[in-house]
Specification:
two-stranded antiparallel sheet, about 45% helix, 9-stranded mixed sheet, about 290 residues, about 20% strand, alpha/beta, globular
Length: about 290
């Protein structure tokens, strides 16, 4: 239990806070989707993550976000861009989806990793400033692979969970990363690591054994005196929201209109993000 008898919280660490900032109107818009959508129904949740903004705008952004229990992490623009776009999204995201190591990323790998490490340290600093005994820290996704171990070194008793929203590749693919050991040691600072499906969990355990030489058995990775549990817990959707929407007049009218517009025709529906690993051109070619 937290000291002083207060309520324990879930401190959710995410690579980037789901916000869009209008500097002219000094207004913050909260974006749907991702971690924000998945956690919106939970109580006692506070988010910690990177926000890109000019230093002159930091005071009012910090004030507004703290009022709702969100904790922004500010970085120099060059560090933030390299951390989030170059290393996280261009390099890790590609490799974790079985795409070859981008040559452009290979040229400045060490510099990019240093920015990635710096960003993870800044997120850890903000968490340590707000964390109280009894709080649970829940780290999300590939931009923050180093964060669990950074927190563990500072607060050995901290409860830390980690969830990877994207695939974890086979060890043969993962091992092409020059910083493969650093990333694994970073995430193994968590007490519990969750993956979408069993295959990803198995790949992670295999990578730990082959890259780090640690012992793994029945979902437990042993690293020295530390034990980390590996589990499968696929993220779901807020089904009640969709069921209720089907009963609204707006949705019923839309369905009736679509049925009229496409009467007698075949309709193929897809739901994809527009990024380079989704294979959208290939799907369209297959349909054609």
């Amino acid at each position: 239990e937290p000291q002083g008898g207060g309520r324990s919280r879930i401190l959710v660490a995410t690579g980037c806070l789901p916000v869009q900032i209008d500097y002219g109107k000094r207004k913050i818009e909260f974006l749907e989707g991702g971690v924000n959508r998945a956690l919106r129904t939970l109580e006692g949740v506070e988010l910690v993550g990177y926000v890109q903004a000019p230093p002159s705008e930091h005071p009012w952004i910090l004030k507004n976000l703290l009022e709702i229990g969100w904790h922004p992490v500010f970085l120099p623009k060059d560090v933030g861009d390299t951390f989030f776009q170059d290393f996280s999204n261009n390099l890790l995201y590609s490799v974790f989806h079985y795409m070859p190591l981008p040559m452009a990323s290979a040229d400045n790998m060490q510099d990019a990793f240093e920015c990635y490490e710096q960003a993870n340290k800044e997120v850890a600093k903000v968490i340590l400033e707000t964390w109280k005994p009894g709080d649970l820290v829940w780290v999300h996704d590939y931009p923050l692979l180093l964060l669990p171990n950074l927190l563990r070194k500072k607060q050995p008793q901290m409860r830390i969970g980690y969830f990877l929203h994207i695939p974890f590749p086979s060890s043969e693919i993962y091992r092409i990363l020059p910083v493969r050991a650093e990333l694994l040691n970073g995430v193994l600072g968590a007490d519990l690591i969750g993956f979408q499906i069993h295959e990803y969990a198995r790949h992670f355990e295999s990578a730990c054994v082959r890259v780090l030489g640690v012992h793994s058995n029945d979902g437990i990775v042993v690293r020295g005196n530390d034990h980390c549990t590996i589990t499968t817990c696929p993220i779901g959707i807020e089904t009640n929201r969709f069921v209720k929407a089907l009963e609204t007049k707006e949705v019923k009218d839309l369905v009736a209109q679509l049925e009229q517009d496409y009467k007698g025709r075949k309709v193929l529906l897809g739901f994809d993000r527009f990024d380079h690993i989704k294979g959208i051109p290939h799907k369209l070619y297959a349909i054609e």
